[in-house]
Each structure stands twice: as C-alpha cells, then as structure tokens.
Design brief:
Distance between the termini: 78 Å
Number of helices: 0
Oligomer: single chain
Helix content: under 10%
Radius of gyration: 27 Å
Shape: globular
Strand content: 35-45%
Strand order of the largest sheet: 1-3-5-7-9-19-21-22-24-26-28-30-33-36
Number of strands: 44
Largest sheet: 14 strands, mixed
Number of domains: 3
Length: 567
C-alpha cells in the first residue's frame, strides 16, 4: 500500500465511537514525501513500514474532546488547567491542581485527554490519538509521526494532552520525527497576537497591553499609547507605556497539556537517529509535564531498556510534591495499577531540560523500580514515593538530577554520590536513603536532613557514611521542628548525628548547621573558613528547661571520635 505525494488518506472516527482504522498489509506500507495519513487511531501491520521525508502520519487532536477523557483539564471560567496523560497538565490561573496521569509507560495504548472548557467551548483542544504499528522486518521513519494534543483556541482554557505512539519492529531506522506533545494553553483574553511561549504581544477589543496582559486601562491616562487615531478609538494595538503589572493584577490563563506516551520495541537493531518528543504543552502560567519515551532493544545478548523524560526547560511552578498527589501539576508520572507490571527495570533513565519524574500507585503493595544508570543535564528532579522502592545503581557524576526523598519513602543511590551544579540546589532527605558510602556536597548545594531523614538501618536524623565532604558554599542542615511541642522533638537526642567511618572534611566556605550535632569519625578536617555552626541554637523547650546531659552546650562536636581532627 502506497500513499503518494499529494495523496491524503483520512479515517473520520472519533475516540468515543470508533475502534479506529486497522490496516493489515502483507508486503510493504509506504507514505511517500507529501503523502498524508490521518486518523483518530491506527492499527497497522506490515512486513516493512516506510514513511519518507515529508511524509506524515497524523493522529493529532483526534483523541478525547475538550473536557473528556481519563485526565481532562479541570475547568474554571478564569483559567483552567491542562489535561494529563504521561505528564500532568499545567495549572491554570485559578486551578492549582490537575487530574492524574494514566496509561502504561511500557505499553501505551490510550488516547490523550481534552483540555479544560471552563472558559467556553473550544474547537482545537482535543487530545492526541493513537498509533499502533508493527513491522515484521523493518520500519524506517524519515518523515513524521504525530500524536499531539490540541492547543486551546479559547481564552482561559487549558491545552489537551498528547496521545500514544507504540511501535514494534525487528530493525528500526530513519532520521525523522516521532512526536506526542501536549497542546498549549490559551493566551490571556483579548489577545490578538501571542508568541510561541504563549505570551501576549498585542491586545485587541480596545484593551491595553501591559506586561503580556490585556487590561481595561492604564494606571495613568498619560501612559496610554495608540489610544486614538484622529477622533476614532483604536481597537487593536493599544498599550501602556512606562508601567508594569501590579502584584495583585488578575491573569486569566489556561495551563499547558501534559505530554503523551511513546513506546518503541526493536527485536534486532535500533538505528533510528531522528527526533523523539513528548514535551508538555506551553503556558504562560504553567506548562504541562513531559510525557514518557520508553525504548526497548532486544538482541541475542539480551534486552536493553531506556526511559527518557525531557520538557524543553519548562519546569513546574512548585519544586516539590504537596502532601496529596492529587494537588500536583506539571510533572512526568509513571503510574501503576492492577493491569500494569509489578516491577520496573530501566537500564538507562534520562531526565533533561527541567523534567520531573514521579511515581504514583493505584493499588496496594510496593513496586520495585530498578535504574541501572541515571543520566541528565542537572536541570531536573526525581521524586521518591512510599509505594515504590527506587534503586539507582549508577549515575553520571556529579549526580545528574536533584532528588527529594519524602517521609515514609525509600531511595537507594550510587555508592559514590556527588551533588553539585544543580538547578534545584536544595536536596531534601525526609525519608530513608540507602547505598551511599561517599557523599560530596558541592558549591551552592543545601542538603537538608528532615525530621524523619536517615540512612538505612539507622535512627532518624542519623547519616551513616564512609566519607562526607562539604565544599565551598555547600551546606548540610538539620533542625528540630519550630513547634516545641512537636512529637518529632526529643530534647535528649541530637538534631543531627553523623557516623562517619573514615573522614569528615569541611572545605573553606563549607558549613554544617544544626541545633545539636554529634559526630563520630576516624578523621575530621575543618579547613580555614570551614564552619560548624550551632551558635544560638540551644533552646529552652516546654517551659521546664532542658533535662539533658549535653543540651546546654552550644556545640557538642565530637562526643566521640576515633582518631584525629583538625580545626
């Protein structure tokens, strides 16, 4: 079967009333340059599948309609959220949470969901469709496969989420594009022109442009520009000169849609050198979270698996998760329910360009996650979960992403761990950290040990390491809760215990700060301008004074030491 230049093959089904288009081709399926295949869902089997340069297979905007699907945008008439799929949608101006992500990261099969509709009916905010293709011999993609979510064309509405692309073949080749991006959220109301970042560049309807918003009038009449031409009011192009948006100014913006999911399986060789995207849709409020790209290559030597998340430098507005996951937005999710696998094994995981990777479970039990090696560009973050045992065997050095270990959760990290040069400079240990022998805190990194933070097998607020180094402008901190009646306070126990088998070394400019520190080490080196600071931290809790052998001292450094220390 061949679709030639200028030929368009269209199947008109929808996500809710059609099983999609099924094509079984016993020999070769080919889309030549300039040819197009459009559907809501396509199931294609052939001996070989080829999409030439400038050939197109497109299921974009053919998933669930606006407001529909497993993860639709949440409506609000002043700015709803984007839809979710592989990534959660971005929050809108008046909606701070989004619907849950869904679908199997290893075997994506579901439509993208529609964007929010609280700002009015929209025509282009439908989710991405589904592409399921199997080539028994070879698949070559030099053209484009697209399953994008729709961008909102109605002010205040959020974008749709990307769809699913699921490819199976013996040999995978080509240099084309495979895309399942979320749709962009709407620009502010009364905007006639906005840029690719969804910032308004020009207002209409007699509104004035100020700091990418369209407002009724300037603060001062003398700042009006393009207000009148001769005696006639100007409808489009008005703006306020020499004014900035006020802190309480109202913005009405829809969030970006979450990226979709892509799965690629090869049984012999993966020679594809093109571009694979599952970005979240853009928004001037919050962009959607990146979708997932899973690649499995099986050869006689075994199977190698790779997970990639990349969000083109669009970060969530909130660095860390809130107490309840349903309040989250703008991150990539791996979700597990009864129909999915009981454990995950990724030989390689890449977290790049501001992406955040989160795990969420919809059934009882704990799921192991094994990551052979973690890669990244220092801009993203990986989050722990109480329902997953995350084990990272190896990584680039310095550690290529920030991390947050929450209460009642576990994360095993590489034996030698250096954290430095991260975009997210605050590292939080509020749960259980395992595997680390040698910990190095680099410049501008703040390593926070929370009330429940600890090394595996040790009491809370206790780190057990072989070596700890703190370099210039790096900090290790641990504090009692501010509430003196908190059950997390034991005034007879240090706020930080360091059990160091070999060496603690605080370099010039490095610091260790806490209320009460206890250190056990073979060697302690505190260089000139290195700091251990408990100044002014002795506190009279619970009105009755401190009933503790050591509490009254500002610094109880080296309660025990094995060998030597230098100050």
């Amino acid at each position: 079967m061949t679709i030639h230049d200028g030929g368009v093959f269209t199947y008109t089904g929808t996500a809710t009333d059609s099983p999609g288009l099924t094509l079984v081709v016993y020999d070769n399926f080919l889309i030549r340059g300039g040819g197009t295949l459009i559907s809501n869902k396509i199931n294609l089997e052939a001996s070989t599948i080829t999409i030439d340069d400038e050939g197109l297979l497109d299921v974009s905007n053919r998933g669930y309609d606006p407001g529909e699907g497993p993860g639709p945008g949440i409506d609000h008439n002043k700015g709803g959220s984007g839809a979710s799929h592989g990534g959660r949608g971005g929050m809108g101006s008046f909606v701070i949470n989004t619907t849950s992500a869904y679908d199997d990261v290893l075997n994506p099969t579901q439509y993208g969901s529609g964007g929010s509709i609280g700002g009015g009916t929209q025509n282009t905010g439908s989710g991405g469709g589904i592409v399921m293709m199997s080539a028994f011999d070879m698949m070559t993609i030099d053209g484009t496969i697209m399953a994008n979510g729709g961008t909102s064309d109605q002010p205040r509405n959020g974008g749709a989420s990307g769809g699913s692309i699921n490819l199976h073949t013996d040999i995978f080749a080509g240099s084309g594009k495979i895309i399942s991006n979320g749709g962009d959220g709407a620009c502010v109301p009364h905007c006639s022109v906005c840029d690719s970042e969804r910032r308004c560049l020009q207002c209409t309807d007699y509104k004035y442009w100020r700091d990418s918003n369209c407002i009724n009038d300037c603060n001062h009449s003398y700042n009006r520009r393009n207000h009148m031409r001769w005696s006639s009011p100007i409808k489009t192009g008005r703006y306020c000169a020499n004014e900035r948006a006020s802190p309480n100014e109202e913005w009405q913006i829809g969030g970006g849609g979450g990226g979709g999911r892509i799965g690629i399986y090869t049984m012999e060789e993966n020679r594809f050198r093109g571009e694979i995207q599952a970005y979240g849709g853009k928004s001037y409020k919050e962009s959607g979270g990146a979708g997932t790209i899973y690649i499995s290559n099986t050869t006689p030597n075994g199977t190698e698996t790779t997970l990639k998340v990349n969000n083109r430098d669009k970060k969530p507005l909130r660095d860390h998760l809130l107490h309840e996951l349903y309040e989250d937005s703008g991150r990539t999710y791996i979700v597990t329910d009864a129909s999915h696998v009981t454990d995950y094994v990724f030989d390689h995981v890449h977290i790049n360009q501001g992406a955040h990777l989160v795990f969420e479970k919809f059934e009882n039990g704990t799921t192991p996650v094994e990551i052979g090696k973690l890669y990244g560009d220092l801009t993203g973050m990986i989050h722990s979960s109480g329902d997953y045992l995350i084990r990272i065997t190896d990584s680039q050095s310095p550690f290529p992403a920030s991390f947050y270990i929450y209460e009642d959760s576990y994360m095993k990290l590489p034996k030698s761990l250096t954290v430095a040069q991260l975009d997210y400079q605050d590292i939080h240990l509020d749960g259980e950290m395992d595997g680390v022998h040698d910990l190095t805190i680099g410049r501008d990194i703040n390593f926070h040990v929370g009330y429940e933070g600890h090394s595996s097998g040790r009491d809370k607020k206790t780190l057990s390491l072989h070596n700890l180094q703190i370099w210039a402008d790096g900090e290790v901190q641990s504090w009692y809760p501010p509430d003196p009646y908190s059950p997390d306070i034991n005034p007879d126990y240090p706020s930080l215990v360091l059990d160091i088998k070999e060496r603690l070394h605080i370099h010039p400019g490095g610091s260790l700060q806490t209320h009460w520190l206890e250190v056990t080490a073979d060697t302690i080196l505190i260089d000139q301008a290195g700091v251990v600071d408990v100044s002014g931290q002795s506190r009279d809790y619970r009105n009755g004074g401190i009933n503790s052998e050591y509490w009254g001292e500002d610094l109880q450094l080296l309660k025990y030491f094995r060998h030597s220390y230098n100050l």
